[in-house]
């Protein structure tokens, strides 16, 4: 929806910076881990684990934290097949990734 022409859905900053086809091409070819380097662990998110560790380190370095900090969790809707996908009965978004 970043590239939508509707005034309430499109994001001008994104659509002016990159075309939708260019984004899809980058997304299709972006790989963070080779399958041959995959560890034999139960970590379902091993493909993005190194990126997450780097981001957390940078967020902690440059983040502004307060004494009273509230963090809420949310569900990102996902209907594809992935072992990290969760199902929570009785929620508005039942299938997806928990953040």
Automatic annotation (TrEMBL):
Q: Which GO terms describe its molecular function?
A: sequence-specific DNA binding
Please state every residue range assigned to the domain named PiggyBac transposable element-derived protein. 1-98
Q: Which Pfam families match?
A: DDE_Tnp_1_7 (PF13843)
**Database matches in InterPro entries:** PGBD, PiggyBac_TE-derived
The name of this protein is PiggyBac transposable element-derived protein domain-containing protein
What is the phylogenetic placement of the source species in the record?
A: Eukaryota, Metazoa, Ecdysozoa, Arthropoda, Hexapoda
């Amino acid at each position: 929806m970043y590239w939508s022409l509707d005034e309430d859905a499109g994001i001008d900053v994104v659509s002016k910076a990159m075309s939708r086809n260019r984004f899809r091409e980058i997304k299709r070819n972006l790989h963070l881990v080779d399958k041959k380097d995959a560890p034999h662990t139960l970590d379902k998110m091993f493909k993005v684990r190194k990126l997450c560790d780097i981001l957390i380190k940078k967020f902690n370095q440059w983040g502004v934290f307060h004494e009273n900090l509230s963090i809420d969790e949310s569900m990102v809707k996902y209907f594809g097949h992935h072992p990290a996908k969760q199902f929570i009965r009785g929620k508005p978004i039942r299938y997806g990734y928990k953040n």
